[in-house]
Design a protein that fits this description.
heterodimer; A: about 110 residues; mainly beta; six-stranded mixed beta sheet
Chain lengths: ~110, ~120
């Protein structure tokens, strides 16, 4: 079956630090890959996505590249801000409609 | 263009009561999904519905839980005789197509946080 494994948190950083959250997956077929972000008390918002191998998704300074050879989709940001404090979820959609999520990584950015 | 709407945002029930969670998909979306998020965990798929049809309810507990998406009105997730273990955040998502249409992206509502006393 499909599964997503992401780096456990919590992660605490200072402003302007580099952020990376590892995500690897197991899936049948050729999944689409997503990063969702959940701010405190809110629902999930799509941060970025990639639908095929070697695609790079990017948004708000975040990037992730679909690596089929390593089955990975690591999230990176070069300089984080306090407003980036949130829970980040890696997810995949294989050849059906169910999104499979990782457990989430809590990121706290301190001023 | 309103996003996915869910209500109530917070719901408190005593053990044995019924909980009804509502979800209105984005305009033009006819595919609705329900997910449950237990504390400190990721989201788990519960059920996938199209108008008047349940397509896949494989993630839903066999007892006490039911879902519908009528021709008119919102999708409803109903939990009968709630127990403390039902306390969780329940998220609804919608999409314009099923499967991997448009990359398989789903749009999420703000969730309903259910607390069972």
């Amino acid at each position: 079956g499909n599964s997503v494994t992401q780096m456990e948190g919590p992660v605490t950083l200072s402003e302007e630090a580099f952020l990376t959250i590892n995500c690897t997956y197991t899936a049948t077929g050729y999944p689409s890959l997503f990063w969702y972000v959940q701010y405190p008390g809110e629902g999930l918002q799509l941060l970025l996505k990639a639908t095929k191998a070697d695609d790079k998704g990017s948004n708000k300074g975040f990037e992730a590249t679909y690596r089929k050879e390593t089955t990975s989709f690591h999230l990176e940001k070069g300089s984080v801000q306090v407003s980036d404090s949130a829970v980040y979820f890696c997810a995949l959609n294989s050849n059906d409609y169910k999104l499979s999520f990782g457990a989430g990584t809590t990121v706290t950015v301190r001023a | 263009n309103a996003g996915v709407m869910q209500n109530p945002r917070h719901l408190v029930r005593r053990r044995g009561q019924e909980a009804r969670l509502r979800c209105s998909p984005m305009k033009g979306h006819s595919h609705v999904y329900w997910y449950r998020q237990l504390p400190e965990e990721g989201l788990k798929f519960m059920v996938y519905l199209q108008k008047e049809n349940i397509i896949d309810e494989s993630g839903m507990p066999k007892e006490r839980f039911s879902a519908e998406f009528p021709k008119e009105g919102p999708s409803i997730l109903r939990i009968q005789q709630v127990v403390r273990g039902d306390s969780a955040a329940y998220f609804c998502a919608s999409s314009p197509t099923g499967g991997k249409g448009r990359g398989g992206e789903q749009f999420f509502g703000p969730g309903t946080r259910l607390t069972v006393l």
